[in-house]
Amino acid sequence: MKRMIAVIVIILLAAIGTGVWWFTRPPAAASEAITLFGSGTIEADETVAITAELGGRILELKVDEGDEVKAGQVLVELDKADLLALKTQLEADLATARANLELVSAPARAEAIAAAQAQLSQAEVARDGTRLTWERARALADDPHALEARINQAQAGVNEAESELEMAKVNLKRMEIQAEAASRNQVNHDAMVQSEAAQHRFQAAQVGVEMAEVALAGAKRQVEHLIQLRNLPLPLIAQANAAQAVYRQAEAAVLAAQANLNAAKADATPEDIALGKSPGARGRGGPGCGGSATGQANAHRASGRADQ
User: What is the rounded distance in angstroms from the CA atom of residue 281 to the CA atom of residue 97?
Assistant: First the structure.
């Protein structure tokens, strides 16, 4: 009995000690109190779309997903090759426009006027020559008697060329005899000099014969050509038409040269300066051409001079 009572007392003391320890122990840390484990994706409540003002090929990404960025920080680098090419083209256009503006704004220069006058003179000479050729071809095509007269004249030229060839041959024979005689008589210095001179005269006589033969052949070809035209007049008519077309082109060249001269003499007009300032004006032609600001300015000057 006493032994049982002792056991009960011991149990009660243990229970009381456990209760006192439980209620008097210090509180545990919050991190130690709750621990969570799991897997998933964390997404922000607010997202920002990043776009470039101009499209292009991406050269480099400066940041990775999840990196912290600051305002003004470069995130993506685009290829600038197209933009640099466009910048170069625009700079060239600007330089061309400035050059055109200086050109059309400059006063007339004496050397430019002289060059334009020379071009006009050359064009007029060419026009007159083509007109004479056309008139002769037309006369031959319209008047067979004129063609017959040309044939007779050409035949007379053949006869004259034959006579000149005979004279050249006679002269060649005489020079040959003199050269042979001089070559056999070289007894002193003077004789050697005369022999050398005789050889030169002989060589010149040979050249004279060759030239006379060429002239005779040309005269004969001219007669044959005229006779062929008389027998077959269609090529003569075609030749006259072709000569007329060449003459018309020469006339147009004179008009263009006259316009350039007028433009060289005229001062810049407000329209010329406006064309020179135009950002789209680019030189694609020479003087007088409408494909450039300078050419259009020349056209304006020429028309203004013609109206005055």
Answer: 6
At 253-269, the pLDDT tens digits run 999 988 888 877 776 56
| Tokens found for residue 77 | 């680098």
> Could you state, in order of their start, the residue ranges of all structural domains in the chain?
109-265
Domain 109-265: top CATH class: mainly alpha
Is the CB of residue 151 less than 8 Å from the CB of residue 230? yes
Question: Which phi and psi (to 5°) does residue 66 adopt?
Answer: 95, -10
Say which residue, 251 or 232, is predicted with more confidence.
251
254: its two tokens: 């004179």
Asked whether the beta carbons of 198 and 182 are under 8 A apart, the reply is yes
Q: Provide the pLDDT for residue 300.
A: 46
Q: Which helix H or strand E contains 58, and what residues bound it?
A: strand 58-61
- CA separation for the pair 168, 163 (Å, rounded): 9
Q: Between vectors from CA 46 to CA 45 and to CA 49, what angle results, nearest 5°?
A: 145
C-alpha torsion sign, points 300, 305, 307, 308: positive
